[in-house]
Amino acid sequence: MKRFALLFAVMFLLSGLFLVNCSEDSAIAPDGNGQNEESFDISYTTDSSRAVESSITAALGGTVYAVDSSGVVFTLEIPANALSQDETIRIIPLDLLTIEGPGVMLCSGCDEGEDCCVKGALFEPEGLEFDSLVTLTVEFPDTRPFPFDSVGVVMVFDSPSSLYSPCPTEVDYDARKLTASISHFSGYGTASPDCEHLTQLYYRFEEAVRATVGTGAIYYPLGELIGLYISNVACDPVFQDQCHVMCPSVNVMIENLFAVELSNHIASLKGSHPVGEATPQSIEEMIEHFEKLYRVKCSCSLTFTVLAGLESDMFAYIRQMAGTVYTQGVTLCQQSECDDGEALLSYVLNLGARGYVTDEAFLQQVEEALDNCCAELSITLSADNYAIPRAVVSIGDLEAGYITLTATVTDPSGGPRVGLRVDMGWDINYSNLGGDETDENGKAEVYVSARDLGSTEVFFCYESLVRETGAKVYDPVASEWYESDPVTLTFKNLVMTSEIQYSFSEDSFTDPDNYKVATAAVSGGGTGPANSTSPCVNDCTGKIQFSYTSNSCSAGECGTENVIGNPEVTGCLVRPVFDGIVLDNGKLVYLVEGINFYSSALYPNVTYERCVAAVCDTAVYPFTAWTRWPVAEIPTYFEGDGTGSFLPWQWSEETETSSTSITITVGVHY
Predict the structure, then answer these.
(1) Which of 130, 323, 348, 420 is 20 to 30 A away from residue 354, measured at CA?
(2) Given the DSSP bridges, would you call strands 443-449 and 402-410 parallel, antiparallel or unpaired?
């Protein structure tokens, strides 16, 4: 089984944060002047004969590796789009890398005086920064013992500054390699420092932390100390793969420093950003510190328990600062400085959208203040139904024949305004539907039916008629009119249906010189909207078709007759008959009382062809001249039964030589 060092949740942090990779600042010495601090001396020589370079395409990424004289392999894996442009990458192995200073390197399997765990290379172009993290792996040959019995780290170094910093490192003992994530090019190597060595690295950053309390500069040395803290954890085979802290005193010092100085840092930030003087700019400055502290907490929440409390404290403090800005915005609105007031209130709402303010009751209060900024009144319009029929087809549906419009008038605090006249309608003055005074709840109601469309539109020939409806109210205190946002009302037209089925046949025979065989048919119908004055033929769907054929012989003169012209008419032959009913609320609602039927369409003149002895001629003749129509006149009116149903009209007659039947069905729906 593989044994890994640094098995904490370090890889969670590989998101470009300064906490988990060797950043571009890692090799810059802080201005630490601690009394316990001792210096390091870093020196190296390059082995140009083993240098390797490769052209890497930014869009694809790639892998570059080089091998030093002792067989150590440095492999750089660059993911796609980590480079902002195509680059020539160069790795120059070091022939010698020494780190002299307090303490020693804990290298195993080395000759006396040799630090065989200290290996390195330079990576060029110098200072190159990546858009995302790249992976550096250092793999040791199997020709000699793996030099890391305890802690092993990848480190970034900078000889002129005499400083090196450990990077969070994964150590794979079985594969004999160390892996870290880096964000820029510098010098990188490997090391296995002892406790004294790590202690001096701590002192390098302790004073920098103390000196930068209350500023944004504190997060760099904090990050370096976190890297040092993680690098001090190892999994030693002696402990059967159990992780342990190599130098407990170092990590205790880091924990104590965090507990004291981070609290001082937050207190200093509050002192320089007082709640009572909060502005959007000061809040954004606090948010920037909060975000950096949050990243610190994400990496160390299992160890530095003080961070969770400090993060919560800062979060609550940002909420308090937002309260101050809210109060400033409300005050500006009350002083009629509308734009500035709305800007501050909108900023506070945006803090909620960004997740920095989570108090829902407070955010609702801010939203209401923004809605009422510089407004004396607010009027909203609603309807209990936004679509109604132009006329109901059942007497039991009279209540569905009107809409109740409700206007609600409130003051900026949300309280109702009582006794104000509200007018409603769809003309420019919002007055054609009438109005009412607001009650104790600030509400006024108006009832609307198809009757309110007016004499020119109540008989429209469309599937529906749409009206944008609004309300207005006059505020005598402010001497201003206020209008609601419009609501859309739809008036649905009636859809009328008609169908006719007529058949006629005649068969008389005396002898071959005297006989007649004839058939006639009328069939079809139509569907479409209709008003109460005429069918809407332009929107009619459907036709009524006529046909007649006969073969006859009289005194030996034989011939045929056929309808050949005008064989069909528009099928919409019905229109509604309304009854107006006044309801208790005073609104007139139309009820479909019956249906008028246009029977005249069934008596057309048609063109027919008569052929005798192979000689044919044409003439115009009434269709009914050939057929037997009902003795009683076809009805022109169908009476409803109050439920929207209409019984079909039927008639039939049969004689010894002829058969006639006719059925007419009409209906109405939406």
Answers:
(1) 130
(2) antiparallel
Q: Which pLDDT value is given to residue 20?
A: 42
Please name every residue paired with 180 in a beta bridge, in sequence order, or none if there are none.
136
162 pLDDT above the threshold of 70? no
My answer on whether omega of the bond before 125 falls inside 30° of 0, hence cis, is yes
**Cα(250)–Cα(235) distance, rounded to whole angstroms?**
17
| Residue listed under structure tokens 């039916």 | 449
Helix (H, G, I), strand (E, B) or coil at 337: coil
Q: Give pLDDT tens digits for 239-282.
A: 445 566 778 888 889 888 888 888 899 899 999 999 999 999 99
Matching residue, tokens 């005086």: 113
What is the number of other CB atoms lying within 10 angstroms of the CB of residue 379?
Answer: 24
- Tokens standing for 20? 């988990």
DSSP string, 87-123: EEEEEEEEEEEEEESSS-B-BSS--TT--TT--EEEE
Q: Which single residue is written with the structure tokens 């930030």?
A: 269
Instruction: Round to whole Å and give the CA distance between 166 and 183.
Output: 14
Specify the residue for token string 């609307």. 448
**Token pair of 290 as six digits:** 């909060």
Question: Is residue 395 pLDDT above 70, yes or no?
Answer: yes
Q: Among candidates 496, 529, 388, which has minimal Cα distance to 450?
A: 388
pLDDT in tens, 465-481: 899 999 999 877 667 88
Phi then psi for 225, rounded to 5 degrees? -65, -35
Q: How far apart are CA 641 and CA 661, in angstroms?
A: 25
